[in-house]
């Protein structure tokens, strides 16, 4: 079992111990309803064929159709996909949307493929998983390495196979073909709403310093929203480069450059005085108020947790903090707002998009953001009610979020019963 799945299981069992969860529920919630693994050929631009491996894992569907992203990553494994699917179950339950958890993707580096090759890969992979996805069954969404265009190809491929347009089969689509206003920014905006609620009694967000690790959709949008809300974003980074400015980086300008097809490195080359390059570990170990790990899993570990200087960790990525690091951070009085709460804005607005698609209606961005704030704030308050601020050594927000999620899933299982 890979470390990322070990971490997901350890978090579950720690919460299950507290809840005195019966063995029958433990067995069910540490199993996976469907594990779909496929190898398939894709025609490349030069006429050759390459074989790729793809996964789709459905963890639990007791609360409704399953929901989870499609990841294109050269490091994707089956164990990682299982861990992410389990976390999606808890995430949907914490924000109380009627979905179960799933995850999937292809082991591929999308940056090495042309647009045509990426379309061929997406359409062939979608064809492979048609038996297990559907608007009432399992609903993919964008994730690392994928975007609204990839979702458009998936929706079109599925629709062509069924003979009519089915926009609700995926979320995160372009608005022009049934996507939702506000979906692209939803994960970052949800992080902002949770942070604002957390800091409401401590003077708010204005003037707070922040470091954001990762500058994809989550990190880039979060950095921009933090800056617009009055925070000072001192550090940003991606795989190529990490940047620092003591008085704050213009995250909005950097994100606009990246959105236009550039990179943080090329933005820095064009604006060398806007920030200075630093070592990547300097971002995680920054002396700031808020650290946002928004890249990949397992970046805060038992080896570096004692060097984290931020007093608040807001998890933008899935599983960025290992259980060993959680214990160290808790002992040091560092608050962690966990992934299954903090970054649930994406799946929340995906739920809104699915509702709109099923009803053939279109909400305004204002409606979407207002509903997103309502559900994120409600989820945060429910978690804090289980583990009040200042409960260090007694419980953590991660444990409280897990308790809440597991209880909701178990209730659904018990109400439905086991068939036959």
Task: Map the helices and strands.
Elements lengths: L2 H17 L3 H7 L4 E10 L5 E12 L5 E8 L4 H17 L5 E8 L7 H15 L8 E5 L5 H15 L23 H14 L9 E5 L3 H12 L3 E6 L4 E3 L6 H9 L4 H7 L5 E3 L2 H4 L5 E4 L18 E3 L8 H9 L3 E3 L1 H4 L2 H15 L5 H22 L10 H20 L4
Parallel strand pairs: 3-4, 3-5, 6-7, 6-10, 10-11, 11-12
Antiparallel strand pairs: 1-2, 2-4, 7-8, 8-9
Helix pairs in contact: 1-3, 1-15, 3-15, 4-5, 6-7, 6-13, 6-14, 7-8, 13-14, 14-15
Write structural notes for this entry.
This protein is of the alpha/beta class. It folds into two domains: 32-169, Leucine Dehydrogenase, chain A, domain 1 (Rossmann fold, 3-Layer(aba) Sandwich); 186-342, 3-Layer(aba) Sandwich (Rossmann fold). It is 45% helix and 17% strand. The chain contains 15 helices and twelve strands. The strands form two sheets. A seven-stranded mixed β-sheet has the order 9-8-7-6-10-11-12, with helices on both faces. The protein has a five-stranded mixed β-sheet with strand order 1-2-4-3-5. Helix 6 (186-199) crosses helix 13 (345-359) and helix 6 (186-199) crosses helix 14 (365-386). The longest helix is centred in the last third of the chain and has 22 residues, at 365-386. The chain is globular.
In a nutshell, what does this entry contain?
The chain is of the alpha/beta class. The protein has helices at residues 3-19, 23-29, 78-94, 115-129, 148-162, 186-199, 217-228, 251-259, 264-270, 281-284, 323-331, 339-342, 345-359, 365-386, 397-416, and strands at residues 34-43, 49-60, 66-73, 100-107, 138-142, 209-213, 232-237, 242-244, 276-278, 290-293, 312-314, 335-337.
